Amino acid sequence: MFTKVDDCTYGNIQIEKYFAQKNGLNVILLNDPSVPIFAYHTWFHVGSKNETKGTTGIAHLFEHLMFKETKNKKEGEFDRLTEKEGGSINAATYMDWTFYRETMPKAAFELVAELESDRMKNVILNEKQLESEREVVMNERRMRVDNSPSGKLNECLYKVAFENHPYHHPVIGWMEDIASITLENCFEFYQTYYAPNNATIVVVGDIPREQALTTLERFYGSIPSSVIPKPSFATDPVQTQLKFKQLNLTIPTPKILLGYHIPNMNHPDHSALSVLQSLLTDGKSSRLYQTLLATNPLVSEIDGWTDQTELSGLQIFQFSLKKNIDPQTVIDQFNQTLSQLITQGPSEAELQKVKNQVETSFWSHFSTCDEKAQAIGFYELVTGRYQNLFKKVDDLSKVTAPQVVQVAKKYLTTQNLTTILGNPES
Amino acid sequence: MRTLPWHTHQDTPLFHIEKQDRPILVSKVVFLRGYEHDPKGKEGLAQFTTALLLRGTKNKSREEISTALETLGLNIDVNVGAHSCVFNITLLRKNLNPCKALLEEIFSSPAFDATEFLKLKQDLKARLELDLENDGGLAKAYFNQAIYANHYYGHDSDGYQDTLENITLEDVKHFFEKHFSSDTLMFATCGYITLAESQTWLSDFKAKLPRSPTVVLEKTHPKLIEENMLQLISKPQRTQSHFLIGGNGLPITHPDQDALSLFFETFAGATFQAQYMQEIRVKRGWSYGAYGTLDGRKNAGGWYLYTYTELKDTFPAIELSLELLEKAAFGEGITDDQIEFTKNHLIKAFPFDIDVPEKILREKVFNKIVGLPEDHLEKSVERLEQLTPAHVRLAAKKHLDLKKIHITLLTDTNKMQHTKLTGFKTRTHDYKDILKSKKTI
Q1: Which of A277, A379, B14, B66 would suit a FRET pair with A112, their CA atoms being 20 to 30 Å apart?
Q2: In percent, how much of chain B has pLDDT > 90?
Q3: Does B119 touch chain A if contact means CB atoms closer than 8 Å?
Q4: Do residues A68 and A22 lie in contact, with contact meaning Cβ atoms separated by under 8 Å?
Q5: Tens digits of residue pLDDT in A66-98
Q6: More confident of the two residues B2 and B308
Q7: pLDDT band for position B419 (50/70/90)?
Q8: Closest chain A residue to B93, measured at CA
């Protein structure tokens, strides 16, 4: 059933990709016999970006429902059978993807393949289960967003920065949508997106290739493909002026969130943008840490991140201000620091620092079977090629000073910016 | 699993695992002195000292030392515990020698600059205020203060705004000289490094450290909970409550620790088979997560159940939690089959506790700090296999007292229809009271 598509070697890591012509299932394998365990990830190419107005949050809510019942397994059986074998299970949903993971002792490989293939095609749902998980998800939203200042700020940023773009709405969904999703919505979602030709299985651990492919063929071979809708995502017009919003929050001092529109992960500018953000916010020698916190303490906390997404995303900078500091002062200092970087360009030492930090970070997080499977699956889904996991490390180390300056000038502009200011309620 | 032994090199404990699968290595530089040595009225001093240590040396400014470390790709983070300060270091194999040199400089000639001292003081006080934003963390902090009342475990490493204010630069220098020495040092490495290299590193590092006298601390015990108490933490604009239900427990070395731990894993572990998760989340949808655990520490212990619910479900969830706990501990709330299921799950899951050297390193170092036997990790499965449901039930009955329970409930008290619980006295705090050292818990 499976034919080899390609393989990839990086140091002593060897990965192989297989494809089933019969039903479009992708399989990626990394054999590691050093410990008698494995990680099994099933990545579906669906996330919150595929949701429609009125049913935001359905990708995530449905992820919860996948753990309930199938035609062959009663409610609770999935958890019981995997935990009986000493396994750990979980799942996650984001804007571009949903994945389900198990980490198990090697003897349980066939069991996991059976359970995962079963719930790919045979999930059954009832109102009671939907209502119960709806409540759970609403509580999850209260925990992550409604009662969390950073959650509220982040949600507001994406809501304001994007209008029609599918990253406008949160992955967890708006509360009113979570409350109104129906069983019919869920079935339709399942039948549309949960199919082998929309899935990539990643297996990392002490499972030899032959065993993996033979077992997967046995359990997935009879699952037909589905007609996956050709993705079509709304876009926003290019932003031409600053967007601004204020929120009142239960916080001791103000917070500022700055979000700049940036291209997707496959775009040639993405690596330079990642390096730019690292130079500005990663570590205590970063430029913003020095100018905003160490030398002249205007803030007590700095954070920054660069979206790694399939569609265009944001580069974000977040600050928690010290007492009695005017937010405008922080923004002015941010702009001054950015201008200096643009004028001077980063030094060779700074670029070497980023290169070494990237290398340390990569190897620190490419350690357990689960971490490896997650990294492989993520790059395959978001960039289309798992090999980009290693290419990214190389690309980041080759970014030059002129490239950093060029992306800073191009993307970190006032017209491209959305600012969210969180004010203490008192 | 065969025991992975600690070595002794020049009288210093050294643990090492070599695995050359990635071009990095991890090191733990441990000083066996922690916040139990914070003087009264100056809680937070150990944390303060470790933080200031990384803000410059006699030859390098704060910026220069940060730049030097980060340029090499070295990550360093610090855990200040009650009994230790652990510097967790990850570095690239190719930069081992310059990293070693920098680390030696940091620990042998810290600047303890007066300007940085003042800045750090403000930073740490600001940090305490930022912690107010995390409802779960805040509830846990109040809970710890209650079950470890009048004890250092109650204040954790952070201190309070008033105690941080009391700390002087001389206090920091004195704390460093007294506690960060070759006599309190412990060392652990794993990854792309040989035993011989680790020993050389340890020798070179230790040679740069001063000696310090032995310090004998009077052993203290927390004030035990004497009655059922509901502690309300009032925070505005909440649509969700967080609560912990718990009490005094066992030190981690207690012979009943494993049996009581298995009780909590069965009743309230983080799996979907656990009864607490089933009742609170799965059946009722009252929370995204519900679990319980032992909080065993070196010189004392506690236990707790924790969850977070919509406001209207808060008191029903508390009442249900108490009911379930009583049945589980004193009735037939959990079955022998459930105990055996959990036990077998933990046994089969053991390979995940040791699948990478970093996890083994973390466990071995922790176990040594708290005084567990050298083979505690390696004998985990053996100890589990020896436990029976009878052991588990006996441990629960013996060590859980449902008339001496503390509940910390963080919520918007203005929106709650009632805040009384039958059989519990009530005490109320504003959520910001956690910033102050002096308060009645």
Answers
A1: A379
A2: 92
A3: yes
A4: no
A5: 999 999 999 999 999 999 999 999 999 999 999
A6: B308
A7: confident
A8: A360
- Give the 3-state secondary structure of chain B: CCCCCCEEECCEEEEEEECCCCCEEEEEEEECCCHHHCCCCCCCHHHHHHHHHCCCECCCCHHHHHHHHHHCCCEEEEEECCCCEEEEEEEEHHHHHHHHHHHHHHHHCECCCHHHHHHHHHHHHHHHHHHHHCHHHHHHHHHHHHHCECCHHHHCCCCCHHHHHHCCHHHHHHHHHHHCCCCCEEEEEEECCCHHHHHHHHHHHHHCCCCCCCCCCCCCCCECCCCCEEEEEECCCCCEEEEEEEEECCCCCCCCHHHHHHHHHHHHCCCCCCHHHHHHHHHCCCCCCEEEEEEECCCCEEEEEEEEEEHHHHHHHHHHHHHHHHHHHHCCCCCHHHHHHHHHHHHHHHHHHCCCHHHHHHHHHHHHHHCCCCCCCCCHHHHHHHCCHHHHHHHHHHHCCCCCCEEEEEECCCCCCCCCCCCCEEEEEEHHHHHCCCCCC
Distances (CA, A) of B178 to B38, B45, B49: 12, 13, 11
The more confidently predicted of residues B441 and B352 is B352
Residues 6+ apart with CB under 8 A from B132: A252, B138, B431, B432, B434, B435
Q: What count of residues does chain B have?
A: 441
Q: What was the ipTM of the complex prediction?
A: 0.95
| Calpha distance A422→A149 (Å, rounded) | 8
- Torsion over CA of B14, B19, B23 and B25, rounded to 10 degrees? -20
- Residue B441 above 60 pLDDT? no
Is residue B440 over pLDDT 80? no
Burial string for B338-367 (b: 16+ CB within 10 Å, else e) reads bbebbbbbbebbbbbebbbbbbbbbbbbbb
Separation in Å, CA of B122 to nearest CA in chain A: 9
Give pLDDT tens digits for B314-350.
Answer: 999 999 999 999 999 999 889 999 999 999 999 999 9
A140 contact B CB<8A: yes
Question: Shortest CA distance to A333 belongs to which of A366, A306, A294?
Answer: A294
Cα radius of gyration rounded to whole Å, chain B: 23
Could you tell me the two tokens for B107?
Answer: 């620990």
Residue type, B263: F
Judged by a CB distance cut-off of 8 A, whether residue B337 touches chain A is: no
The tokens describing A110, both together, are 């066939």
Find the distance separating the first CA and the last CA of chain B, reported in whole Å.
45
Helices (H), A282-347: 287-288, 327-344
Q: Would residue B428 be called left, alpha or beta, if left means φ above 0 and alpha means ψ between -120 and 50 degrees?
A: beta
Inter-chain touch B22–A363, beta carbons under 8 Å: yes
CA atoms of B319 and B314, how far apart (whole Å) = 9
- Strands annotated E in A45-176: 69-70, 88-93, 98-105, 123-124
The encoded tokens of residue A334 equal 């941010």
Q: Determine the Cα–Cα distance for residues B217 and A419; give it in Å rounded to an integer.
A: 52
Beta bridge partners of A314: A261
Two tokens, residue A309: 């997404």
Distance (Å, rounded) from C-alpha A274 to C-alpha A362? Answer: 14
Residue A129 amino acid letter: Q
Q: Tell me the nearest-neighbour CA distance from A265 into chain B, angstroms.
A: 24
**Is the CB of residue B284 less than 8 Å away from at least one CB of chain A?**
yes
Mean pLDDT over all residues of chain A? Answer: 97
The mean per-residue pLDDT over the stretch A250-262 comes to: 97
Question: How far is it, in rounded angstroms, from Cα B329 to Cα A393?
Answer: 53
Region A391-417: what's the mean pLDDT? 97
User: How long is chain A?
Assistant: 426
Take residue A133 and report the two structure tokens written for it.
Answer: 């998980």
Residue A300 · residue A293 · CB < 8 Å: yes
Least trusted range by pLDDT, from A27-36, A174-183, A330-339, B414-423: B414-423
